[in-house]
Amino acid sequence: MKVGVLALQGDVPEHLRSAGGLLPEGSVVALRRPEQLADLDVLFLPGGESTTIARLLHGANLWTPLAQRLREGFPVLGTCAGLILLAREIAPSPFGQDPPSFEVLDVRVRRNDYGSQRESFEAPVVVDGVTGRPFPGIFIRSPRILSVGPNAHPVAWRGEEIVGVRSGNVWGLAFHPELSDDPRVHRRFLEESGFPP
Question: Which of 58, 80, 160, 161 is catalytic?
Fold first, then answer.
């Protein structure tokens, strides 16, 4: 089985390291070309700049084939910018033009709603199925989940606030698990996607 990390912009090395540390050598690849998609069983959409990633997806001719695979139930975990690109609806943001999205995760989000880079923070997060101590949630210019539709359900919380959502095989997190040294969220997603622990 093959795991892909969209490798056009953003926290690509961090996702490659996090997923690669859980799987046999050669199981995790950097996705840059449309022909690579057919070989993948799972995909990580990294944190980064959502408008830039959307533009690069179109430029690499990856948007349309990835949209098709997502409609077919392709397992994907989007973190921060990845959550934005998966969301059903993006509320208008004061931080410039919002990107298009794949509209496969039944949530409404707003970009950068926790503030600017200077207002980044770390906070404990409870993640469904992740046992032990709270997960170290790293929030950097993160989107906020404004509402969750009937076709999705929460999977992560910062206190009472929902910071992670799942709809079938599609997961979206407002925080950056790839920037922590804690592999539990990656492990949980991979196990739910059929990979051995």
Answer: 80
Report the C-alpha gap between 52 and 39 in whole angstroms.
25
Residue type, 66: L
Q: Which fold has domain 3-192?
A: Rossmann fold (3.40.50)
Concerning whether 178 is annotated as a catalytic residue, the answer is: yes
pLDDT tier, 6 (very low <50, low <70, confident <90, very high otherwise):
very high
Catalytically annotated residue among 176, 186, 191, 192: 176
The question of whether 160 is a catalytic residue gets the answer no
Annotated catalytic, 25?
A: no
- Phi/psi for 50 (5° steps) reads -60, -40
Cα distances (angstroms) measured from residue 184 to each of 34, 62, 193: 29, 29, 14
The region, left, alpha or beta by phi > 0 then psi within -120 to 50, assigned to residue 101 is beta
Q: Which of 14, 15, 122, 178 is catalytic?
A: 178
* Residue 21, number of CB atoms within 10 A of its CB: 12
At 197, the pLDDT band (50, 70, 90 cuts) reads low
pTM of the model: 0.94
Residue with tokens 């059903």: 88
